[in-house]
Amino acid sequence: MSLRIVVAVKYVPDATGDRHFADDLTTDRDAVDGLLSELDEYAVEQALQIADAADDAEITVLTVGPEDAKDALRKALSMGADKAIHVEDDALHGTDVIGTSLVLAKAIEHAGYDLVVTGMASTDGTAGVVPALLAERLGIPQVTLLSEVAVADGKVTGRRDGDAASEQLEASLPALVSVTDQSGEARYPSFKGIMAAKKKPVESLDLSDLGIDEAEVGLGGAWTAVQDVTARPPRTAGTIVKDEGEGGKQLAAYLAEQKFI
Amino acid sequence: MAEVLVLVDHVDGAVRKPTLELLTLARRIGDPVAVHLGPGAEAAAPVLAEHGAVKVLTADAPEFADYLVVPKVDALQAAAAAVSPVAVLVASSAEGKEVAARLALRLGSGIITDATDLVAGDEGPVATQSAFAAAFTTTSRVSRGVPVITVKPNSAPVEPAAAAGTVEPLAVTFGELATGTKVVSRTPRQSTGRPELTEAAIVVSGGRGVNGAENFSVIEDLADSLGAAVGASRAAVDAGWYPHTNQVGQTGKSVSPQLYIANGISGAIQHRAGMQTSKTIVAVNKDAEAPIFDLVDYGVVGDLFQVVPQLTEEIKARKG
């Protein structure tokens, strides 16, 4: 029986660009080019490895976002995912993590799944709570923040490296897995992969397809409200000295003056 | 006064510093009620009381250690039902954020993560967060349900404030999902004797310029002279010179210490995302053009292998 894997990914503004907020205090997506969140590349990679190890597996890559977000899906398809789902709806603008988890959960149920794989966090919002929210919504075990993951005999096992301890985890399928950047370098799409991706199916869905009321998402449906955004004031120019043999002593004097010593 | 739930982060009853910071913040909003899950409540309760907990709800069961995250959510949900809090505060650790997220969904509440400050507002607590590698500061509030807020370590001072700290058992019924993810084994990380990276008041980091695992002792010596934690840039971690658990940056840990000393780190945006909220920033780098110098309060352009050992010696001499 085929192992159905759904990888949830995010299309994010490039962190090396000059990221901004728009007038409505949401992320300004026009300001900077977007791309597949780097941390989600690791999720696609692990899904591909799990699929390779299975007798028969199918990987669906899923994203919620504007038209451009298809770029993130194409990247994942060119890496080797089999098909894609793109959820796009104007009403989604300004959706918070709670709303995002609702849309993703409905789309994952629509796709059908045995295993859901995500990155540890997005590189724009960086909250890192969507994996746990998805597991809660889907009512399945969360096996999260894994640096190693394997699926066999209807079970997922993995290693979670925390601050205090390293844990070996185990859960029965269906389950949700999130992986860290330590899970293994993501592959580059090959030319063949890029060509093949063009022929792979991308299903487009909107909120009505998923049976979601517009009032549950978007800025209006958010359960949190941003009140104010301010650009961090530029740091006042610091003191910079060139080491002429006394640099360490000069720095010590500064630290003492600041009462760190 | 309204009650504020605070989830206690502890190791067998030894309360970790971020929890004491949460108690300081909780008092701005109401009366802190601490929730202690797992063993060691007898040891923790007096400490929590000294820091303002009017009540300590305790529950111990093997589920808390044997299964991931969900048992703690079940317990916190029971606590929320027992006291009807005006907010729930959790430390922004990896597990803390997961517990908070699931709890928020169950309570039908919004969630704010990685707050760096928290004040009372007319419509509930107002949280400060930093965004886009700390290029922006935002203030937000939860507009639905009981505000669930996770707070970054070092966001508030630890202030003693004696309170009753009445210990009461909390009845917890574990749901079906509680035993979904089994912790098969747990290997405690070997202690370095240094402070935990995300909680440390001073962080000393090394990057590409350290040029080898064997050279990290130069960074460690400086850290030890200051009682600091050791951090590393992604370049140093990817090269295998230092463990991933010490990585500071977008894909590693976010730190906000009083003092951050970057050594041989150029200051790419991914690194800045993890340290830019540090109060005082110092850098040592031989490249005068390195972007890290745009952030610093004090920078030394020079060879870290000359500057850092001299700095370490001088600190030791000054400390006598």
What descriptors fit this protein?
heterodimer, A: 261 residues, alpha/beta, nine-stranded mixed sheet, two-stranded antiparallel sheet, 13 strands, 28% helix, B: 320 residues, seven-stranded parallel sheet, five-stranded parallel sheet, 9 helices, elongated
H and E order of chain B: EEEHEHEHHEHEEEEEEEEHEHEHEEH
SSE pattern of chain A: EEEHEHEHEHEEEEHEHEEH
Shape verdict of chain B: elongated
Largest interface: A-B, 84 and 95 residues
Would you count the extended β strands of chain A for me? 13
Strand coverage percent of chain A: 25-35%
Biggest sheet features of chain B: 7 strands, parallel
Radius of gyration of chain A: 21 Å
Give the fraction of residues assigned to helices of chain A: 25-40%
Contiguous uncertain segments of 5+ residues of chain B: none
Q: What does the average pLDDT of chain B come to?
A: 95
| Net shape of chain A | globular
Task: Explain what this protein looks like in three dimensions.
The complex is a heterodimer of chains A (261) and B (320). Chain A is of the alpha/beta class and 261 residues long. Chain A is built from 7 helices and 13 strands. Chain A has helices spanning 38-53, 70-79, 97-111, 130-138, 191-197, 218-221, 247-257, and strands at 3-9, 11-13, 34-36, 57-64, 83-87, 115-119, 142-152, 155-161, 165-172, 175-179, 202-205, 224-231, 239-242. In chain A, β4, α2 and β5 form a beta-alpha-beta unit. In chain A, α2 packs across α5 and α3 packs across α4. The longest helix of chain A has 16 residues, at 38-53. The mean pLDDT of chain A is 94. Chain B is of the alpha/beta class and 320 residues long. Chain B has a 7-stranded parallel sheet with strand order 7-11-6-1-4-5-12, with helices on both faces. The longest helix of chain B has 16 residues, at 304-319. The chains are: A alpha/beta (261), B alpha/beta (320). Chains A and B meet through α3, α4, β7, β8 and β9 of A and α5, β7, β9, β10 and β13 of B. β9 (165-172) of chain A pairs antiparallel with β13 of chain B, so a sheet runs across the interface.
